[in-house]
Design brief:
Elements lengths: L1 H35 L6 H25 L7 H17 L8 H25 L3 H19 L11 E2 L8 H24 L1 H11 L1 H6 L4 H27 L1 E2 L1 H4 L3 H13 L4 H21 L4 H15 L4 H10 L1
Antiparallel strand pairs: 1-2
Helix pairs in contact: 2-6, 2-9, 2-11, 2-12, 3-4, 3-5, 3-9, 3-11, 4-5, 4-9, 6-9, 7-9, 11-12, 11-13
Length: 324
């Protein structure tokens, strides 16, 4: 028994060291990449920038839907809010261009709104009905901002007019930093007492309540935490595009893609969400580039195919193959 435990623990430590080493090599490559390459001239840099955004949003979506078990399609609402905080704040002179305060405020506002709508939704709705409720929140916000008059720019949106140019490398590093922070904080959350309680309510909500876990508060907490990251990404997207418009920033794809990525990688798995973001992000970019007319159709087919063919995700499938 003692030898078995020693071998088992040794194998776990070796695997952990290998994952850490590969992760460090990837991070080092991504940090040094802009130093040796002119990011303005290659499409690959634009591709990586969007992969970072997708990854951060997918990992955050996995907190509420994978860890807490509350399948949400409301991330588009928070992405759009973040974009409009940046645009309105800049237009009205509250923030300068690419202002750190705008990123912080967008996260705070989204978390407060997530808590505000989360309590009534999560108290009354479960499962598929909660999913529809979050989708309804996104659509309601989109319509509100379309009809928001001068304050939101209406259907025409808001242009961020400025002669100041931070350069694409700033957007690259900002998206990279946001993604790293999201992954790091998610890893801490997964291993914390809060993460254990979220898993407990996901697996059996009644049993979780019977041992003293306030399931409603924990579900709202997970929903609020997951709302902060898409808001920050939306803020960055607004600065990058220098234009926000309701049909762009509140587009349902900002809710659909994170779900698709996390499901492909493996629901509730941090590594799975990262893998899914890379795979689906690459496919999305290729489809947008070569088959833009079929983009929505192919995305829907992929979502259904992933749920039917890979219910446990790519990461779990690879682990099973390795164990054989």
């Amino acid at each position: 028994m003692k030898n078995f435990l020693s071998e088992f623990l040794g194998e776990k430590i070796r695997k952990s060291k290998n994952i850490t080493f590969v992760s460090l090599v990837c991070v080092l490559f991504l940090v040094l990449f802009p130093i040796f390459v002119d990011l303005e001239r290659i499409y690959f840099a634009f591709f990586i920038f969007f992969i970072f955004i997708y990854m951060a949003i997918s990992v955050s979506w996995n907190i509420v839907s994978g860890l807490a078990g509350q399948f949400s399609l409301g991330h588009a609402a928070f992405f759009g809010l973040g974009a409009y905080v940046a645009a309105i704040g800049f237009r009205d002179g509250f923030f300068s261009f690419f202002d750190l305060r705008a990123f912080i405020l967008s996260a705070v506002i989204s978390m407060v709104i997530a808590a505000g709508v989360g309590y009534p939704l999560l108290a009354r709705l479960r499962g598929f009905y909660f999913t529809l409720g979050t989708l309804g929140v996104s659509e309601t916000l989109r319509l509100l901002f379309i009809n928001g008059g001068e304050f939101t720019g209406g259907a025409w949106g808001i242009r961020l007019r400025t002669a100041f140019d931070v350069g694409f490398s700033m957007y690259y590093y900002a998206s990279f930093f946001i993604t790293l922070i999201t992954i790091f904080l998610s890893a801490i959350l997964y291993r914390s007492k809060v993460g254990l309680n979220l898993r407990a309510l996901r697996d059996d909500e009644t049993a979780a309540e019977s041992i003293g876990i306030n399931t409603l508060n924990y579900k709202v907490l997970a929903f609020s935490i997951s709302a902060a990251i898409p808001a920050i990404c939306g803020c960055l997207f607004a600065y990058y595009l220098r234009y926000v418009e309701p049909n762009i920033v509140f587009n349902a794809n900002w809710s659909l893609y994170p779900a698709l990525m996390a499901l492909l990688g493996g629901l509730g798995s941090l590594i799975g969400a990262i893998m899914g973001s890379i795979i689906i992000g690459a496919i999305i970019q290729l489809i947008s580039l070569y088959f833009p007319a079929f983009h929505p159709l192919i995305s829907g087919i992929m979502l259904v195919a992933v749920m039917v063919l890979l219910p446990t995700g790519v990461y779990e499938k690879i682990r099973k193959i390795i164990r054989r």
